[in-house]
Amino acid sequence: MTVDPRFGTEGRNFVYLYYTHQTSDACPVKDPASNKNPVNRVSRFVMEGNVVHRASEKVLIDNMPSPNGNHNGGDLHFGNDGNLYVSVGDGGCDYFEKTRCQYENDASRDKNMLLGKVLRITPDGGIPAGNPYTDPDSARCNLNGRTATGNHCQETYASGFRNPFRFALDPDVEDANKLFVNDVGGQRWEEIDNVKAGGDYGWSICEGRADNPYKAGSTNCDGAQLAAGPVHQYSHKTGCESVTAGAFVPDDTNWPARYRDAYLFGDFVCGKMFSLTPKGGGGFKSRTFAGGLRLRSPVAMDFGPYKNGQALYYATFEDGGMIRRISFTNGPSAEFGAVGNDHGDDDPDTPGLQMSFDASGTTDPTGTPLTYEWDFDGDETVDRITDAPTAEHTYDTRGRYAATLRVTNGEGNVSDPARVEVFPGDEPPEPTIDSLTEASAQPAGSQAEAGVDAFRVGGDYAATGSATDPDGDVPVGLMWEVVQRHDGNHEHTLESAAGEGLAFSGPKPEGLYSTDPGGNYVEVRLTATDSLGLSKTVFRRLTPRTTELAFGTEPAGLRLEIAGESVSTSRGPTITSWVGYDLNVFAPRQRRDGRTYAFRSWSDGETAAGRVITTPEQPSEYTSSFRRLRR
């Protein structure tokens, strides 16, 4: 969401939303040919006071496909030129063929589609002067998300992006735009691009400065064939694997000079923030700015007013979602936690009303003595002042309280308040996943009837659950979340729902080399929340059903293209695949040792060089025969 730059001027109280629009009552089927799939949309709404009027919606761009339910992109900002910029992902899988995903998805290279692009429009939805594609071979794509093959979409500002999840514009560059796009990579690299009008930033031919192995050598990814290489890239070998939030440090902050002209960005997987600062001879130097933010953080960031300057505000998905602030100060930074430390008089298993608080995690740059002001019930009245970082408090009644702490150092500097919710006398509810079954037809007494612990791609599954509350209260509600874990270090939400059950489909792997069940699996989570807001989560893991597929060629040692990867058969290969996963396999014409070889047939009788293999339950072998061409 963003706000009209002239908000507050009569007739310009607009907010702009980029959202996924459900086109039918049916759930998405992840079939690009289906008219039931949701689409992405950019709309403008009138806002009065704190109310956004839904009926005032003016759709500016519509029908941007979401064929796989991910890589929607999803950011929008106004530039200093007064125009609206929008980033759009490649849709996860191709909008034309559902089996072409990840490295095989080339939607970002289709100039007649809005997928994998950065768009630029006027605040009213028009085409700004200076957009790069307004020649006779171009057309508007704002209604259908596309135009005729071979034509350019006039909304396109730049292309060649995989998942441009967030971008930022430098607020201090007047009469121009300094636009950095954080483009989430595939299996290898994350990149940040300095985007210019008409630029091509490489995907799906390139990932960062490296070739897509599926199309190796087709473009010089580290040379002049593209608009430019990324201003910064980093390898997944660092443990950071998903570049997300980003923001330029504005000039009017009270931050130290070392942050002047700096760009801050975050990584969703390793839970860190980094700074990019210009180097004297060109390029940028990267440093760690903040760590310990945990997985799924940060997802968005921006600078905003704080006291006499500005602070960095960032959003995280952790702990149910939070907005947090980072400011520069010479004062202390308060941090504390709380635990219950006694039991009720009548029942030793019942939690009591006494809580212990510990602020030993508080930091202060001056090293002077600290004073701790405790407000145990959040009523903005100081209940106790201590010189030590610990305190105890006994509450009068069971309940939910927002305990608050302020810390003062020896120079009189006072910290921002730190808050922790406590629940004296309360115990969390106990959720239980009662059943987890496969809905497809199975014989009586089968694994599906008894409950499953493994899934197949495309299988239909159902879960039911319940909860009890030791305090006797009925839980406020049950909330489900189904996530797909990827390589053991980050996750994507597949489904979420409230109530006693939900249904979901078995997902496909995120790539040819993301099939190891040890780090790639589905987790079904159930959270119960009691009447005070205290919650507890339980989970069940579903591992993929896997099988081994062996590939070869005759003569031996030629190359095959498997799921977007160019693979040599000189040492096999045997790959681990998920049962039900559709693998695109292609036997290309190729040269080896000065000789040219062309496809003849497959060992199972298939006569097409390109084919889709639906992974079977049992291990299988596929050999492609080639014939040598005479020249």
From TrEMBL:
UniProt xrefs under InterPro entries: 6-blade_b-propeller_TolB-like, Glc/Sorbosone_DH, Ig-like_fold, PKD/Chitinase_dom, PKD_dom, PKD_dom_sf, Quinoprot_gluc/sorb_DH_b-prop
Pfam families for this protein: GSDH, PKD_4
Question: Which residues belong to any copy of the PKD domain?
Answer: 366-422
Q: Which SUPFAM superfamilies match?
A: PKD domain (SSF49299), Soluble quinoprotein glucose dehydrogenase (SSF50952)
Superkingdom field = Bacteria
* Gene Ontology biological process terms from the UniProt entry: carbohydrate metabolic process
- Protein name as catalogued: Cytochrome c551/c552
Q: Which organism is it from?
A: uncultured Rubrobacteraceae bacterium
